[in-house]
Amino acid sequence: MTRASKTLQGLLNHGFDTVIDVRSPAEFAEDHIPGAINLPVLDNEERARVGTIYKQESPFKARKLGAALVFQNAARHVAGPLAIHDGSWRPLIYCWRGGQRSGTFAWMLKEIGWRSELVEGGYRTFRRLVVQYLYDNPLPFRMIQLGGYTGTAKTALLPLLQARGVQVLDLEGLAHHRGSLLGGLPGGQPRQKGFETALAQALLALDPTRPVVVEAESSKIGDIVLPPSLWEVMKAAPWIEVFAPTQARARYLAEAYADILADPEALAEKLSPLRFHRGHELVDTWCRLSRDGQLVELCASLAEDHYDPAYRKAMKAVDPKVLQSFTTETLDPPALDALADRIAAQLEHHQTMEI
């Protein structure tokens, strides 16, 4: 392992042709080094079986079975997905702690003639570096929160700002969630560890000398919890706010949440927890509008009667420093482009004034 790969930045910018995670599919699904492929030398069932024998019968018997399975699976990988590589291929290999699974596989590849290397300490080393970066030290970033009522297209503005040279951090994209009661996306969210790996990778790609725009969020996005270091930076950040008329927001929400609104029964289930906060009559009205296909009307009521009061309450509690507010009458693509131009220009002016 090179000296650079002993750091998180070094592991992310490893320089090898392929990173191979030989852990089981379940371990890989929870988290892995970004860009790694999963070629398990023990699958989920095999790993559990070897572990049970190790604990209940004999470590020697478990190692003997494990070795047989590892070589069988490794041979399939060599004859299958790895057969395309020539002699110059350089793979970086890891397992849980850089032990027998990855060591055996790397030895086999070296015997073939490939220049394989191991991640010293395996995935545990990588995870320790991620935790150290996100939890043990303050983050060196100046952030600006992009706030506004639900439906003001804040998430859609982030890539538009990025295209204009603004540094952005898309937390909802990393968390695979739209950040509200109806925010679930197909495929579900990543595991907490997987989110933190993606977050660390995104943060390390940013320039700490320039401000970073992040959408205003709570400390939790769906089931994902933001690391305290990031949350502290966000709490101290000034805001810019976006405003748009309710009808424009309702039309935008009806389109943005079309997947959820298309299923009245599933929507009714998601809205059910709000009966305690907003009352049965209002929730029944929302369900009726959903069944009748009056989706813009439904979104207008959700905004005015649920999301807007919640936003005003949160703003009163947070009381952020607002650098500037921006208003747009519509939220169609041309209007969002024009809005992104205005925000980017103001951020550039703000940065110039700071310098």
Task: Report on the architecture of this protein.
With about 350 residues, this protein is an alpha/beta fold. Helix content is about 55%, strand content about 10%. The chain has helices at about 10, 25-30, 45-55, 60-80, 100-110, 120-135, 155-165, 170-175, 190-205, 230-235, 245-255, 260, 265-270, 275-280, 280-290, 295-320, 335-355; strands at about 20, 35-40, 90-95, 115-120, 145-150, 165-170, 210-215, 220, 225, 240-245, 320-325. A five-stranded parallel β-sheet has the order 6-7-5-10-11, covered by helices on one side. Strands 2-1-3-4 form a four-stranded parallel β-sheet, covered by helices on one side. Helix 7 (about 155-165) packs across helix 17 (about 335-355). The longest helix has 24 residues, at about 295-320. The relative contact order is 0.11. The mean pLDDT is about 95.
Fold topology:
Elements: H1 8-12, E1 18-21, H2 25-30, E2 37-38, H3 44-56, H4 59-79, E3 91-94, H5 100-112, E4 117-118, H6 122-136, E5 143-148, H7 154-163, E6 167-169, H8 171-175, H9 192-204, E7 212-215, E8 220-221, E9 224-225, H10 228-235, E10 239-243, H11 246-256, H12 258-261, H13 264-271, H14 275-278, H15 280-291, H16 295-318, E11 322-327, H17 333-354
Helix pairs in contact: 3-4, 4-5, 6-9, 7-17, 11-16, 13-15, 15-16
